Amino acid sequence: MIEVGTDYEGHSLRLLVWQASKQYRTAALWQFLYDRDVIVRSATARELQIRGGKLVYEQTKKLLKDDSKTIRELAAFILGQLGTPKRPFKTASTRDLLRLIKFEKNATVRATSICSLGQLKATKALATIISFSHDPSPAVRGSVAFAIGMIYCEKLATIPIRTKRLLNKLCSDKPREVRGMAKLGIGLVKGQPND
Length: 195
What we know:
195 residues, 2 domains, Leucine-rich Repeat Variant, 63% helix, mainly alpha
């Protein structure tokens, strides 16, 4: 699991871990992806995303084949925003993520991969993303809605009717988390992410 929250009032752990991660050379950061603490793993993944570069891309690509579902999830997360804000590995990352979700058994890894494809605004992956809208995992279905919203958030007038209908259908999905993500996806498409 990737920890994306913020510290509660009076708590500074995430901030301190993030600041500490900046002190390490890139080669030394990889070990922290295997740390038992989710905050350490998540802060490390974010730092690797920001640093970017070919070496980070190559190492992250290797992690997509790791036996650990946690490491595969972190690798998918890193690829979604590698080299932010320009994302110079967008095409390669899209290809790698599509290859990963094709055979991935773990729902959390599939969900993270789909969210990352959305973060990349991978329009070429849209058909594959939509194909997961019937996945048995609510997290995956919610990720589909988020990814669609991210892909179309800059193309407000061009979302196909079928895709709009899919988002509306996901708004009626039984689990609350899917409905919430579908509403977020619709808000992103409308340019109002807080709807």
